[in-house]
Amino acid sequence: MAPCAYHMFANLRTLFSVFSSDLAIDLGTANTLVYARSKGIVVNEPSIVAINKNTGEVEAVGNKAKEMLGRTPGYIVAIKPMKDGVIADFKVTEKMLNYFIQKAHTRKTLVHPRIVIGVPSEITQVEKRAVTDSAYCAKASEVHLVEQAMAAAIGAGLPITEPRGNMIVDIGGGTTDIAVISVGGIVYSRSLRLAGNQMDEAIMNYLKRKYNLLIGERTAEQIKIEIGSAYQLEKPLTMEVKGRNLIEGVPKTITVDNSEIREALSEFVSTIINAIRVALEGTPPELSGDISDRGILLTGGGALLKNLDQRIREETGLPVSIADDPLCSVVLGTGKMLSDFKLLRKISLE
Fold first, then answer.
1. End-to-end distance of the chain based on CA atoms, in angstroms?
2. What digits encode the pLDDT tens for the residues 259-289?
3. Are 29 and 40 within 8 A, CB to CB?
4. I need a surface site. Which of 97, 117, 143, 332 has the fewest CB within 10 A?
């Protein structure tokens, strides 16, 4: 190729990569994150859509829709179209994806991006089809699905292509994915339909049972973030909680401490640890040796539960670390695949 022709080709390729519409999406139960090639993360909003029941029109998506949760008039309903990591409402998911894709491209012109989406490891064929169909309906030109645990491992910087065992536990909003990865493949994987949303429910049920106090999802999430823990804290934490007294039917404020919320979350934490134990038992001996040296990596929003790493460390006897950016590990991993189609072809689900 002549030098000037080569430079022209290189410039065109650079120009194409700058204007490439390819997107990586972490279509989560709690939040949806979108990574645009050459731009990074361009969308990070709750997976919620507010619909006008009278007209069928979308009133709000993401952050604005979350603000409406529990506060809408009768004709507006705030819908979470994702449940347990998969699509529960196809039409609403399509509208949500369409909104986020347009927002990612900051313009309303027709774009047909190639899209890589992270999904739970034990997703069924029907659920896979629902995800791909909703992306195609939202104007995607190609859709590739990858397992969230693998994407999280890549996003967290684990050396997945080496012939060594890496264990990752990705605790999202709707699912917890546990995987052992070696030589760019998943040796063991398990997906629990138990994650951040179930933590919120456990807190709501605990306060209802103990204090006859009814609280909403947003309040439960706030309690989890501020004073939730999996292991005893050095300094006790307390928080004022406002809700409705179920017996008297009037607003009420109580003070709860971290030990109560730890009790509320104890069953959840035990289930996660038992699943990690089962994964360790199902791992080949050579890889078990690698994991005992390298430890377990925690990703996802649930990894931020205070002292969860310490509790797992104590119960398994293994080193445990938290990813640098646990909330974004999956979308960063899928984002890396936009520029490495060789790796994508190797690990994408058929």
1. 37
2. 999 999 999 999 999 999 999 998 999 899 9
3. no
4. 143
